[in-house]
Amino acid sequence: MAEQADSAGSPNPSTEGQSRLGEWFEKLEKPLMIYAYQTLNDREEAQDMVQEAFTRFFGDEQKIREPKAWLYRTTRNLCISHLRKYGRLQTAGEEEQMDFLDQSSDKEKDNPANRLEREETCGRVRHALSMLPEDLRELLRMKFEERMSYSEISEKSGLSVSNVGYKLHTVIKSLAFELKAEGFSS
Amino acid sequence: MSERENKGPDQGRLIDYLLNESSPEERIEIERLCKEDPQWESARDDLRSTLGLLEDACSQTIPAIVEGMELDADRKTRLEFSRAGDGEAETAEATDPPERSLLATPTFWGPLAAAACAALLVWAPGLMEEGETEQIASAVNDKEKSRKRSEENEEQKIIVAKGKHLSEQYAQSDDTVAIVLPDDAQAIEETVVIDALREEADKAGAKLLAGRTAADIETLNQSVRESESFSLADAFSDSDSAKADDLALAVRAPASGEPGTIDSSAFLPPLEPEAGAAPTQTGIGLESSEGELALLGRKAALSTFRAKESSHPTDLERPLAKKDKLLNLQPSARQTLEKRDRPREKPASWTQSVRKPASCFLFSQNGQALGRVEVAQIAGSTIEIRRIDDVRRGKRFLLTSGKFQLRFTDPDGAVVILVGELRKRQIEQAEAKKGDDLFDGIYRFEASEAWWLDRNEIRQALPIKELGR
User: Fold this and answer.
1) How far apart, in whole angstroms, are the C-alpha atoms of residue A1 and residue B7?
2) Which has the higher per-residue pLDDT, A63 or A20?
3) Do B51 and A38 touch (CB under 8 A)?
4) What radius of gyration do chain B's Cα atoms show?
5) Low-confidence winner among A84-93, A160-169, B403-412 (lowest mean pLDDT)
6) Which of A92, B219, B246, B377 is a good FRET partner for B346, with 20 to 30 A between their CA atoms?
7) From CA B27, how far away is CA A150, in angstroms rounded?
8) B20-77: per-residue pLDDT in tens?
9) Burial A150-175 (b: 16+ CB within 10 A, else e)
10) What Cα–Cα distance (Å) separates residue B71 from each residue in A38, A132, B84, B199, B422?
């Protein structure tokens, strides 16, 4: 399926374009399928949504600056529209959050629209976690679920304290960047 | 400001700060930066939100990756078409053939063409001259042919798409396309059936039109000239100008000739044929079908009207019903509202409100709610409190020492607020059993200021020394 770049001839715009499209497809077909499947819980429907997202992407690729964020956002919107269309969209239950990290008021949290948006964002984060390598996921789990300090994680994982910090920083920064690029409000 | 700070917010430092991994000096520095620089503040808020989401996500089950998550071969092929830029029409046709075939069916278009032709005969008889029947018939046939050609083009496009799907399309030097038909026998069979039906419809239409004679048309013209007709515009105006418009929708004028009130029955045909009403003979045999069409139209209009009428009262009742339902479901909310509306009074004994509160909540210095607490012990201005529900998922989220507020509400609704320093109560090493945590969840709150809230929610100072008595 992947479009191979013409290695012999000089690159022309169309070949480059097609190669780029192929590259994004190669890179994101599986993650997007997993994301759509996690949202819809139906393989056939997930395929429809991802196909539609790529069809739109191929039509508008000249205007798209952040292909990954665009494709994720489009897939998510398509899935949500699909769920709404068939009345399968449900709001999440109550959320819990750590005191230090929570500055939103109870009123804001109780707003169904905010709750729904938060659930969508949380779904996206869960997807991002599911795509991480097992060792990184374990680091995050130790930090956010077990509430361990860097030094405790270091002792348990055998990594140096600075390495633990570096790995966690990298994951958190990239996730924050992706969420922002995909238009999730903070 | 140092050079490091000028570069903009350092996300790593902020993450460490938010995860309580910074030294006290670093925390103070970060707080200063966030206070002074909106960029730092915004970056901190973004990261705080991301960390909150990560915490939520980590506490939930991370979905397992299901194997074989990729598009199937058919979808990939369709995507290849769209990526290759072969034209949107082909893609659309290839992905959605059933809808197209419905519209392309001549059984759908044939009767419509005949009806259009008949309408032309009825509405524009003055333009008709002897021998024009054949011209109209041939014009309709031309339209049919033109439509047929465009349909054939569409069908070719589908076949091209299918041909590409099988990689059996080869470009010619003269820019034409050589198509090798796919092995899809059903497509060919469909084409043959469609052609046969189309031919049949053409013949029927031509037969109907050719069957009319010049005398038939003259009879039609005569009957239209004799009948007193007026356009819908006449219902609102006395002007005769609209009467001249033969192409306007004609209806019969009331016998009195006065416009009077507008009644739908004046321009909609009756649901059932009126007794004694003889059909007008025009000699072209279209009254029955025309009447049927009108009857259907009237039935549709009435059913739409009835549907709207029946939905109308429900729409009005719905919000009220919802409101009642809401209030019935939440009597506690009603009580809360009533209680809230009562004006607040100064507590009879504010120290009693602190000692025996109906509820007590902890707040940070900037007013962030940190949940309910219970008073374990009071000794002078030192209050020992225990947070309720601070243990979530088996973990206790600790508070760092600092300035906090306690808000007490007594059974009468009076509110007392204490501000002071909060710190963890450490169990003495000697008191703790082996293996026990040195912190048992009790905080010590050293109150330094006290207020009560008046009816305007304004803080009124209280003498803190009274608490020690």
Assistant:
1) 44
2) A63
3) no
4) 43
5) A84-93
6) B377
7) 16
8) 899 999 999 999 999 999 999 999 988 998 888 888 888 888 777 777 888 888 888 8
9) beebbeebebeeeebbebbbebbbeb
10) 15, 22, 18, 42, 58
In angstroms, the CA A103 to CA B56 distance is 15
| pLDDT confidence of residue B396 | 64
Question: What domains sit in chain A, N to C, each tagged with a CATH number?
Answer: 15-85 (1.10.1740), 107-181 (1.10.10.10)
Tell if the CB–CB gap between A103 and B45 is shorter than 8 Å.
yes
Which residue in B11, B17, B50 has the most chain A C-beta atoms within 10 A of its own C-beta, making it the best mutation to test that interface?
B50
Q: Which residues of chain B have pLDDT under 70?
A: 1-7, 85-115, 117-196, 205, 207-213, 217, 220-344, 390-397, 427-439
> Does the interface ipTM go beyond 0.90?
no
3-state secondary structure of B173: coil
Return residues 41-80 of B near A (CB < 8 Å): 45-60, 62-66, 69-72, 75-76, 78-80
In 3D space, the residue among B264, B227, B220, B266 whose CA is nearest the CA of residue B243 turns out to be: B227
3-state secondary structure labels for all residues of B335-395: HHHHHHHCCCCCCCCHHHHHHCCCEEEEEECCCCEEEEEEEEEEECCEEEEEECCCEECCE
Given A25, A150, A186, which is nearest B45 (Cβ)? A186
Interface of A with B in 73-102 (CB under 8 A): 95-102
User: Distance between CA atoms of A140 and B15, rounded to whole angstroms?
Assistant: 13
DSSP class of B65: P
Domain spanning B342-468: CATH superfamily: Electron Transport, Fmn-binding Protein; Chain A (2.30.110.10)
Kindly state the tokens that stand for B173: 């030097």
Chain B, residues 368-427, CB within 8 A of chain A, namely 368-371, 392-393, 395, 397, 399
Task: Tell me the C-alpha to C-alpha distance, in Å, between residue A180 and each of A1, A177, A186, B47.
Answer: 31, 5, 8, 10
Nearest-CB residue to A125 (from B20, B53, B79): B53
The band of A163, judged by pLDDT with boundaries at 50, 70 and 90, is: very high
The answer to whether A129 and B62 have CB atoms below 8 angstroms apart is yes
Q: Where are the domains of chain B?
A: 3-56, 87-218, 309-341, 342-468
Cross-chain residue pair B62–A137, CB shorter than 8 Å? yes
Q: What phi and psi values does residue B51 have, to the nearest 5 degrees?
A: -65, -40
Kindly state the DSSP code that residue B128 receives in the 8-state scheme: -
Three-class secondary structure of residue B149 per DSSP:
helix
Helix (H) or strand (E) holding A80: helix A67-85
Q: Which of B51, B56, B63 sits opposite A122 (nearest CB)?
A: B56
**Any idea which residue has 């707040």 for tokens?**
B363
Ramachandran region, residue B441 (left: φ > 0; alpha: ψ -120 to 50; beta: rest)? left
Continuous segment of H or E residues that includes residue B215: helix B214-226
Based on the number of CB atoms within 10 Å of its own CB, is A180 exposed (0-12), middle (13-18) or buried (19 or more)? middle
How far apart CA A88 and CA B175 sit, in angstroms, is 50
